[in-house]
Design goal:
Number of helices of chain A: 11
Oligomer: homodimer
Order of helices and strands of chain A: EHEHHEEHHEHEHEHHHH
Bound molecules: adenosine-5'-triphosphate, magnesium ion
Largest interface: A-B, 37 and 37 residues
Largest sheet of chain A: 7 strands, mixed
Shape of chain A: globular
Chain lengths: 255, 255
């Protein structure tokens, strides 16, 4: 079981879209995947076709000590398992820090799941756009980090803060935590800004920048309103082709 | 002095870009404006041409009790005043809730400023993409809320959570808080999804949806790397024209 946190404190960089579509592609390739929605907005939950207010249990229950296997549901279409975000997750960033060893709550829940031999091949954790208590839980639980990026100035500016946070958590809580990959999630290849920033990313992160980039494509933005990954909603679109390539490259790097 | 919180817990909807460019336009029209950067990412600070690590004092100092007039700097080009975000703002979402009456820290700081007759015509508060302690401070301090929106599914889904939070804060902390306007900040008028969601917004929010919409325009995304509003960076661009119209409509509605 390999655990990845999909994170970027810059908002709107494509975290949820990458998490949902990568989970869908890996499932299509026969892997067992658990998608964890750790964002109170619950976008990965609705993007997978589940209704956050109708879930019986969710991520907040696991952080309160419930067993993960009692909370995860199967996503629509039986593609991957989903631990959804119910509205009760909203208070977690303020409440969690009052618990003893709150930083390791998610790691302990995933470790228990692993021992029960019910584990998945891959766990993907969709994080909120912040470096608060929920994101810290994901970084302590994960062995590797995927960073979706828009090729724009504010997103680039935020990377140094993110790299600093990952270093600090590696030293204090999780020695195996490292940057697994940078994913350009909505590339507009025509404009110069995107090309300049892509080059800047390669200078800083080298081979950790995925070759597969997802082009900006309206089909990708339409898919969530149908509760489907773009692979199922518009299989012949530029966006779906991008996510097929991304899934294949992910397995080359991590399988 | 009228105070506006620029807020949307959905990430990447254009909060910072609206706050910086609206401040720039109102200043061009002769108004005294204070831009408050309450996001630890510090994008409104760097987007105004200031260096967050070189600021003498910032928003975190004001939340610790320093006088606002001792902390605000003039933005580059002398257009508007900026209370910037230094990196020390990052711990606020976890630390603030330990203070007595932490929800009203910013409101008290702005009220003191108002008494000193040094007040601005408008205060715009750029918020982080979350409903944590910093955003709550902004909502308690503001009389009105501006909500930048992408015309996409996840952003629409988040509006009901946002409206509920505003209602709760109005009842408990701030009776004058209301939704002043919804701003379509990066409209791609060619696609059907954007048109459908624009109609949906009008159905729910009626006249509170600003007529002026900002078209998606790469010049807008390039401007922050030069520390300038798009009005100064590319005055003849579609983006600059959009922000001139937005500023004019803002004054029609609120001056
Ligand atoms: N390749 C793409 N082409 C077009 N639109 C896209 C693409 N990828 C994502 N989007 C859209 O961009 C918006 C932002 O993406 P998404 O919500 O996945 O980002 P996020 O990082 O999860 O945001 P948050 O910070 O709020 O969690 C969404 O409306 C999504 O549908
Ligand atoms: N009209 C536009 N055309 C093109 N790009 C835009 C436009 N408005 C904003 N952008 C770009 O979109 C990205 C998101 O905008 P911005 O950072 O202002 O959103 P935000 O809501 O403040 O994000 P966060 O949730 O991280 O605070 C930025 O890279 C910005 O430069
Ligand atoms: Mg998301
Ligand atoms: Mg912002």
């Amino acid at each position: 079981m390999r655990t990845f946190a999909v994170i970027n404190q810059k908002g709107g960089t494509g975290k949820t879209t990458v998490a949902v579509n990568l989970a869908g592609r890996l499932a299509d390739l026969g892997r067992e995947v658990l998608l964890v929605d750790l964002d109170p907005q619950g976008n990965a939950t609705s993007g997978s076709g589940a209704e956050r207010r109708k879930l019986f249990r969710g991520a907040a229950d696991v952080l309160r000590g419930e067993r993960l296997r009692d909370c995860a549901v199967c996503s629509v279409g039986g593609r991957y398992s989903l631990l959804g975000a119910k509205p009760d997750l909203a208070g977690a960033d303020i409440d969690l820090p009052r618990e003893e060893e709150w930083q390791t709550l998610l790691r302990r829940a995933l470790a228990e799941e692993k021992e029960n031999k019910g584990d998945a091949d891959f766990v993907l954790i969709d994080c909120p756009p912040a470096l608060g208590a929920l994101t810290i839980n994901a970084l302590v639980a994960a062995e590797s980090v995927l960073i979706p990026m828009q090729c724009e100035y504010f997103a680039l500016e935020g990377l140094s803060d993110l790299a600093r946070t990952i270093r600090r958590l590696r030293e204090k809580w999780n020695p195996s935590l490292h940057i697994g990959g940078i994913i350009r999630s909505m590339l507009d290849a025509r404009n110069v800004l995107a090309r300049d920033i892509s080059e800047e990313l390669r200078r800083h992160f080298g081979a950790r920048v995925f070759n597969a980039a997802i082009r900006r494509n309206v089909r990708v933005a339409e898919a969530p309103s149908h509760g489907l990954p773009v692979l199922k909603y518009a299989p012949h679109s530029v966006g779906a082709e991008g996510y097929r390539q991304l899934g294949d490259e992910f397995l080359e790097r991590f399988a």
